[in-house]
Amino acid sequence: MALFAYRAMNAAGRRLRGTMDAANSADLELRLQRMALDLIDFRPARRPPSPRRRVVERRDLITFCFHMEQMTGAGVPILDGLGDLRDSMGAGHKPGGRMRDVITDLIESIEGGLPLSTALGHHPAVFDATFTSLIAAGEHSGKIAEVLRNLSESLKWQDELAAHTKKIVMYPAMVAVVVGAVTFFLMIYLVPQLTLFIRNMGGALPLHTRALIFVSNIFIDYWYVLLLAPVAATLGLRLWLRKSAAARHAADGYKLRLWLVGPVLHKIILARFATFFALMYASGITILECIRLSEGIAGNRVVAAGLQRAARLISEGQGVTAAFAQAGVFPPLVIRMLKVGEATGALDLALRNVSYFYNREVKERIEKVQAMIEPAMTVILGLLLGWIMLSVLGPIYDTIGAIKL
Question: pTM of the full predicted structure?
Answer without folding.
Answer: 0.64
